[in-house]
């Protein structure tokens, strides 16, 4: 009697979390580029209120027609909806991994800093714990903005804080009294309130606004009182020099 054919299950694919840098494709690492060119599936987060994925636009010249582009749409103003979206994205990614396909999940900047990759990584680890995960760091917008502005983030013995300004500025006074440099990300929706807070703290002259760093729309504004509506952009941040030694501890 012929033996049943042995079913060989395909090796499980690897999930790559890849940082593609802040915008200039020349800031892609060689490791990121090699992984992006090697995988059959590229997954990109795409905000529901945007026409395309920023991360994908950075690497578009390196994507081949035969690579599958898996778009993970997510709402920006609905936390519950976003959680559902990430869980669906994790399922789609896990489906490819189980077929033995490697998946590159692209994120702008670095994947471990305010990145959608964190949610998908957690989801995939839950539903497909056997899949290996490799994270390839990228040049964060924080580092690129400091470079473009020529503002060192921290020197010997200094302290650096990175805050998501969109979630509340109540602690700005405390943070700038404790840290030498404070980077405010996701700053544009709250810019008016932020500038008023900085003015109240006497920090306006110690703040630099950086928009779309490393792209042809880059703008560095050293006098933040001159920020105009047309300068505002989701892809912008503020580097604020604090006064830790001048304030009471
Ligand atoms: C969801 S976070 C992503 C951060 C990203 N993982 C990183 O390492 O830069 C998005 C925020 O990063 C900042 N950002 C990202 N790209 C930027 C760019 N090219 N120029 C200025 N700020 C940028 C903005 O503050 C934006 O609101």
Describe what this molecule looks like in 3D.
The protein is of the alpha/beta class and 249 residues long. It has two domains: 15-136, Cobalt-precorrin-4 Transmethylase, domain 1 (3-Layer(aba) Sandwich); 141-241, Tetrapyrrole methylase, C-terminal domain (Methyltransferase, Cobalt-precorrin-4 Transmethylase, Domain 2). 29% of the residues lie in helices and 21% in strands. It has helices at 30-38, 54-59, 79-98, 117-127, 141-149, 172-178, 191-200, and strands at residues 15-19, 41-47, 68-74, 103-107, 133-136, 160-164, 181-185, 207-211, 219-221, 236-241. The protein has a five-stranded parallel β-sheet with strand order 3-2-4-1-5, with helices on both faces. A five-stranded mixed β-sheet has the order 6-7-10-8-9, covered by helices on one side. Strand 8 and strand 9 (219-221) form a beta hairpin. Helix 3 (79-98) packs across helix 4. The longest helix is centred in the middle third of the chain and has 20 residues, at 79-98. It is elongated and about 85 Å long. The protein starts with 14 loop residues before the first strand and ends in an 8-residue tail after the last strand. S-adenosylmethionine is lined by residues 22-23, 107-110, 113-115, 140-142, 145, 185-187, 210, 212-214, 234-237.
């Amino acid at each position: 009697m012929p033996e049943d054919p042995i079913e060989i299950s395909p090796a499980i694919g690897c999930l790559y979390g890849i940082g593609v840098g802040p915008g200039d494709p020349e800031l892609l690492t060689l490791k990121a580029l090699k992984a992006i060119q090697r995988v059959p599936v590229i997954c990109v987060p795409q905000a529901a209120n945007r026409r395309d994925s920023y991360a994908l636009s950075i690497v578009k010249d390196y994507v081949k027609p035969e690579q599958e582009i898996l778009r993970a749409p997510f709402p920006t103003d609905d936390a519950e909806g976003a959680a559902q979206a990430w869980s669906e994205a994790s399922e789609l990614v896990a489906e490819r991994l189980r077929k033995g396909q490697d998946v590159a999940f692209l994120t702008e900047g670095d994947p471990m800093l305010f990145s959608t990759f964190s949610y998908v990584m957690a989801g995939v680890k839950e539903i497909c714990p056997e899949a290996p995960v490799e994270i390839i760091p990228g040049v964060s917008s924080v580092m690129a903005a400091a470079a473009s502005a020529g503002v060192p983030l921290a020197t010997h013995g200094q302290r650096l804080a990175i805050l998501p300004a969109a979630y509340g500025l109540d602690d700005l006074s405390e943070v700038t009294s404790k840290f030498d440099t404070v980077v405010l990300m996701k700053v544009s929706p709250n810019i008016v309130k932020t500038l008023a807070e900085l003015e109240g703290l006497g920090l306006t002259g110690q703040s630099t606004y950086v928009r779309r760093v490393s792209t042809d729309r880059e703008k560095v504004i050293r006098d933040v009182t001159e920020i105009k509506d047309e300068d505002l952009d989701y892809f912008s941040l503020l580097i604020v020099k604090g006064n830790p030694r001048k304030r009471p501890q």
